[in-house]
C-alpha cells in the first residue's frame, strides 16, 4: 500500500530565509504524481507544485522548488526567500492508480 | 469558473440528526473526492468517484456514512445518524483526467453536539 510520511510536524523560518520541508513515500508503482499543497489559516487547500515521476528534472514554481529523488522515494520542498504569507500547513501528496494519499502535514511559521 | 462549491460552510447539529453535505465540482472534471480533516487523523480520503461511479469507498468510516453522485455536477455526503466524533472539516475536491491536480472546495465544518 502507498504511504506518505512527513516527519516534521512543525517548522519555523525567518522571513527572507530558505527552508526545506521533507517528504518520503512508498509505492510499487512506476508512474505517479507527487504534489505539495498549502493550507493557510483560511483552510483553503492550494496547489503549490507538482512533479511527474517520469520526469527527472525537478519542478520549480517561482520561489518553490522540489528535490525529487525517485530511487530514494523522497520529495522535499524548498521555499526560498520565505514570506509571511507562506505561513501555513504544507501537505505532501501522492497520486497513483486511483489512489490519492496525503501526508500528515508540516506546520510552517514564517517569523518577521 | 467558480471553483468547487461546497455547502454548507458551517453546520452545527445534535447527535442523532441527519447531516447532508453538498458539492458541485468544476465543470469538465471527471473525478471527485471527499476528504475529512481532523487534528488527530489529518486528511482522510473517504470516497472517490470517477465519471460519477464510486471507485474506492474503503475510507468511509461505517454504514452511517453514504455518498452519492447522481450526475457530473453534484455530489452529496450524508451522515445518519451523526455522532460527536464525526465533527470535522469535510472537503470535496475535483480533478481533470490525467493531471492529478486536485481543486478543493472551501470545506464544510461540521460540529456534532
General description of the model:
- The complex is a heterodimer of chains A (112) and B (113).
- Chain A is an all-beta fold and 112 residues long.
- Chain A contains no helices and twelve strands.
- In chain A, strand 8 (64-69) and strand 9 form a beta hairpin.
- Chain A is globular, with a radius of gyration of 13 Å.
- The relative contact order of chain A is 0.34.
- Chain B is mostly beta strands and 113 residues long.
- Chain B is 0% helix and 55% strand.
- Chain B is built from no helices and eleven strands.
- In chain B, strands 2, 4, 5, 6, 9, 10 and 11 form a seven-stranded mixed beta sheet that branches. Chain B has a four-stranded antiparallel beta sheet with strand order 1-3-8-7, with no helix packed on it.
- Classes of the chains: A mainly beta (112), B mainly beta (113).
- Chains A and B meet through strand 5, strand 6, strand 10 and strand 11 of A and strand 5 and strand 9 of B.
Question: What's the SSE blueprint?
Answer:
The complex is a heterodimer of chains A (112) and B (113).
Chain A: E1 3-5, E2 10-14, E3 19-21, E4 24-26, E5 33-39, E6 46-52, E7 60-61, E8 64-69, E9 74-79, E10 88-96, E11 99-102, E12 106-111
Parallel strand pairs in A: 2-12
Antiparallel strand pairs in A: 1-4, 3-9, 5-6, 5-10, 7-8, 8-9, 10-11, 10-12
Chain B: E1 5-7, E2 10-13, E3 19-24, E4 31-38, E5 42-50, E6 53-56, E7 65-71, E8 74-79, E9 88-95, E10 103-104, E11 108-112
Parallel strand pairs in B: 2-11
Antiparallel strand pairs in B: 1-3, 3-8, 4-5, 4-9, 5-6, 7-8, 9-10, 9-11
